[in-house]
């Protein structure tokens, strides 16, 4: 029964994607309008997906905390960010709009060259490589925002405004431009590379989206998390030597001079900006 339902969903999705990809607008102005609308809709869809992830994470972590399975990294810091904000929704929805617009503008290519398969090994490899490269990109952009004081005030100060009072709802807390420069140019480059490669597997993108969002949210959870949470949620990325744990990004929020990477610690170790402990992080047993 389940394979039949799955098969039906796949066929319907394929037909829908095909009809959208092959639809052409006779007037160039209509095509431009369609691209803009697709960008806006795609961005809002990503915003809804991101906020759904945040809500699931928040409820899961609250449940684990209530059962005594996890504890706050800095128990002395009160937690007040227990709800999402609409400003953060706009930050996370607007940043991917150019990506959705580019994909729609090139819809024929992305449809014709999409080869969907449940290739788990390939998807995990793709995710790991994506995170390794994005980590270096993010470290550089993020460090610039901290180094140039004017850029910090304009773009990044808001993200740090609550110091250690963070939860998963702090993941996208920031200026629209902060979120945009941190992700959009990098993923435009990824789209370009997929275009040059000539084929892509949507399943790889689904896995990467899952892991990237989860690692970002775990980094802002404020909790010391056990391996049974962070290993599957990161698709094993956090098992790689020199990978981050939630404590590393939490320390960045307590002391922004340190830990400017996103997924790994090697950039910070090379630059001398790595720190693995903080006096306020008194919760024991860091894995
Ligand atoms: Zn942060
Ligand atoms: Zn920062």
Automatic annotation (TrEMBL):
Alphabetically ordered keywords of this record = Membrane, Transmembrane, Transmembrane helix
Pfam families given in the database record: FA_hydroxylase
Main subcellular location:
membrane
GO annotation, biological process: lipid biosynthetic process
Outline the extent of the Fatty acid hydroxylase domain.
129-273
**GO CC terms in record:** membrane
| Protein species of origin | Ceratopteris richardii (Triangle waterfern)
The transmembrane residues are 32-53, 89-106, 118-140, 225-243
Question: What molecular functions are annotated in GO for this chain?
Answer: iron ion binding; oxidoreductase activity
Q: Which family does it belong to?
A: Belongs to the sterol desaturase family.
Instruction: Spell out the subcellular localization from the entry.
Output: Membrane
**Protein name (database record):** Fatty acid hydroxylase domain-containing protein
